[in-house]
Amino acid sequence: MKVEGNIEKYYHYAFPMQTILVTCNDDKGKTNIITLAWHTPISRKPPLYGISISPKRYSYALIKKSKEFIINFIPYSLVNAAQFCGTHSGRSIDKLCKTKLTLAPSKKLSTPLIKEGYAHLECKLVRSARFGDHTLFVGEVITASTDEDAFKNELLRTDKIHPLYYIGENTYTTLDRAKRKTF
Ligand SMILES: Cc1cc2nc3c(=O)[nH]c(=O)nc-3n(C[C@H](O)[C@H](O)[C@H](O)COP(=O)(O)O)c2cc1C
User: Fold this and answer.
1) Is residue 68 a contact partner of residue 86, using CB atoms and an 8 Å limit?
2) Residues with CB under 6 A from ligand 1
3) Disulfide engineering: 58 pairs with which of 71, 91, 155, 159, CB 3.0-4.6 Å?
4) Per-residue confidence (pLDDT) for residue 181, from 0 to 100
5) pLDDT tens digits, 110-140
6) Ligand 1: which residue has its CA nearest to atom 20?
């Protein structure tokens, strides 16, 4: 038997969603971090990645202006930092200071990456479009980089890396004991 769900929280059916930290710079080169669960690969050729951001976020204005952003895939161990960056605005606080996350220069953009992440996509904004109460920013992936032991033969090493997932209602999980089958 099916029971009727809450349309206002329809996106809960898509959980768990991998939770990422996106870095973006202001026009003085100061870096802000936003936590996102709404993101997706869009195209292989050219390599395009999409992130959905509400115009209410400070990061929205930063990405509109700088036209670049970095996707940082993070392990479960950064759960506190992700919750912090997802519940505070860079308008009024320095999230880097508060979370003690550290930055490293990216290869091709002026926006830096988060060292504690295990994989990074350097994205140049190619288009943005408003859909309802969010804006989809589409970035071309200019460079992709990872920790050297994070992937083997392009497969995430789930024995070593436990990615952070969000399941809604301020609750997170990971793939700690992932079942795995390769065909
Ligand atoms: C787990 C999690 C996922 C989130 N995903 C999104 C998202 O996909 N899009 C969005 O606009 N905000 C999302 N948020 C909310 C922003 O991260 C939050 O409003 C943040 O404080 C904005 O920071 P800023 O004002 O410095 O840009 C999420 C928050 C959490 C905790």
Assistant:
1) no
2) 19, 32, 34-38, 52-54, 57-59, 83, 86-91, 166
3) 91
4) 86
5) 999 999 999 999 999 999 999 999 999 999 9
6) 86
**Closest atom of ligand 1 relative to the 33 alpha carbon:** 26
pLDDT in tens, 34-89: 999 999 999 999 999 999 999 999 999 999 999 999 999 999 999 999 999 999 99
Please give the CATH superfamily to which domain 18-174 belongs.
Electron Transport, Fmn-binding Protein; Chain A (2.30.110.10)
pTM (predicted TM-score): 0.97
Residue of the CA atom closest to atom 17 of ligand 1: 86
Say if residues 100 and 84 touch (Cβ distance below 8 Å). Answer: no
Residue the block writes with tokens 């670049």: 68
Which amino acid is present at 91? R
Please state, in angstroms and rounded to a whole number, the distance separating the CA atoms of residues 16 and 168: 8
